[in-house]
Design brief:
The protein is an alpha+beta fold. The strands form six sheets. It has a six-stranded mixed sheet with strand order 1-2-6-3-7-19, with helices on both faces. Strands 10, 12, 14, 15 and 16 form a five-stranded antiparallel sheet that branches. Strands 4-5-20 form a three-stranded antiparallel sheet. Strand 4 and strand 5 form a beta hairpin. Helix 1 crosses helix 12. The longest helix is centred in the first third of the chain and has 22 residues. The relative contact order is 0.19. The structure holds zinc ion (ZN). The site of zinc ion has 5 residues, from loops.
Length: 450
């Protein structure tokens, strides 16, 4: 055994004990429940690992910042979030959400994979390197926020006003899960998002439906407007919607073509007979990665209860999420949507952006750090990692690639069935330790080759 392996072996139970203390501490950002207690606990564990740590205020929930600086070396910034989603519905948990237990090789508890165990892997990787070699081969900074599960509202302003403090060569973090095939993933970006609500009011109050001969119906207005936004071929019809979409590079296309694809398993998993008509099914992953979406998340208007009610409603509304790819700008897409509705004769449809906006991110696949991290992950997992230029989901990466202007790589260690945001959230026990080994390898390899 190398000294790293024996150190990890010797400390397994102590680290699990510390992780369980973090998991016992609720940190529900949306209800401000236990946030400060969790930040203090995490800061204490970091300080005990000999990381210079401080709790820094933001407009809402504090950031836990840590650093170990070494002159003349490259700097790695590690991001993570110590907050978690509410645990409800409680009755669906096999064991209580804030009483972590291990069953069949998985650590169960709210906040386990998302994100306490995964962020803790880096704290323990740094501890391992400090104790086994007496020093770190490069500078490491930690940025752990407490608002990820509510959309990271303070993170962008925090990063924008602390660019010097957070200055680094690369940002790395572990969230999400490995591929369903069991192979590890490397994620180089996330989609952006514009979340809008379209709302139309056509009269002061609901009317008897016999007046439909002459009083406008808001649900029809909405349906007609929506039919101008996207066609049955799934193409978005807002003029200029695709203008800023970057063509994938040959390397990105090649990476996506290597993502394992099993159509039968996917169809069964989703419970559908076929993918959208007119699309070649082998395009599943290229579309997921490279195409923006325009999705109706919910639509409501008039009477939808049991039985019938012959009513002419006064209000109808629809919520939509548009997942954007580089270099689409959510504010620009919003302006284009507004202009489109206006020219199509729908000036009466109000648009509100209720959930803010998220910009898309994609770290160049030919950035030297990508090949280095790929090699580190391959060594630890003994398998070739699957590289996603970006995944279909959205998140705060753009703050690092955009505001901070640094490359950002995500290395997940949870398994596909992690149940994050849902009852019985779990973190794969061996995934936790693989994460620690990956953290050690990434730091060693980056320090030598970046
Ligand atoms: Zn989450």
């Amino acid at each position: 055994m190398t000294s790293v392996e024996s150190y990890v072996e010797a400390n397994r139970s102590r680290w699990l004990d510390e992780l369980f203390q973090l998991l016992r501490q609720p940190s529900i950002s949306t209800r401000d429940e236990g946030i400060r207690e969790c930040a203090s606990l995490l800061a204490r564990f970091m300080a005990e690992a000999r990381i210079k740590t401080q709790i820094m205020e933001t407009a809402r929930h504090p950031v836990v910042y840590g650093e170990i600086l070494r002159d003349g070396s490259p700097t790695l910034l590690i991001y993570g979030h110590y907050d978690c989603q509410p645990p409800e519905p409680l009755e669906e948990w096999t064991s209580p959400p804030f009483e972590p237990v291990i069953r069949k090789g998985k650590i169960y508890g709210r906040g386990s994979s998302d994100n306490k165990a995964q962020l803790f892997t880096y704290v323990k990787a740094v501890e391992t390197l400090l104790r086994t070699s007496g020093d770190l081969p490069m500078s490491i900074k930690f940025l752990f926020e407490g608002e990820e599960e509510i959309g990271s509202p303070s993170l962008n302003p925090f990063v924008a006003s602390h660019k010097e403090l957070l200055n680094s060569d690369l940002v790395v973090y572990s969230d999400s899960h490995i591929h369903e095939s069991g192979r590890p993933l490397i994620i180089l970006g996330l989609k952006g998002m514009l979340y809008v609500e379209l709302r139309v009011r056509t009269s002061a109050r609901d009317q008897h439906s016999m007046r439909a001969t002459s009083i406008p119906n808001p649900a029809w207005r909405l349906v007609w407007a929506l039919s101008t936004i996207k066609g049955p071929d799934n193409r978005v019809l807002i003029p200029g919607f695709y203008d800023a979409v970057l063509d994938p590079t040959p390397l990105e296309k090649e990476a996506v073509s290597r993502i394992p694809y099993d159509e039968e398993t996917l169809l069964r998993h989703f419970g559908i007979r076929e993918f959208l008509p007119g699309r070649k099914t082998r395009d599943y992953y290229p579309n997921l990665v490279f195409e923006p979406t325009c999705n109706i998340a919910g639509i409501i208007g008039g009477y939808v209860g049991p039985g019938s009610k012959t009513v002419l409603p006064s209000i109808a509304s629809v919520k939509m999420d548009l997942r954007l790819v580089p270099k689409q700008d959510p504010n620009d897409i919003y302006a284009k949507l507004r202009a489109h509705l206006d020219t199509q004769g729908f000036k009466d449809i109000e648009i509100t952006t209720t959930h803010g906006t998220i910009e898309p991110s994609r770290t160049p696949i030919d950035h030297p750090a990508v090949a280095i991290v790929q090699e580190s992950v391959r060594k630890v997992y003994g398998q070739e990692p699957i590289v996603f230029p970006n995944i279909g989901g959205s998140g705060p990466n753009y703050i690092f690639t955009g505001t901070l202007g640094k490359p950002c790589i995500v290395i997940p260690h949870a398994t596909y069935d992690q149940n994050n945001h849902a009852p019985n959230e779990s973190m794969d026990l061996e995934g936790f330790f693989k994460g620690i080994h990956t953290g050690v390898a990434v730091i060693q390899d980056l320090s030598r080759r970046l």
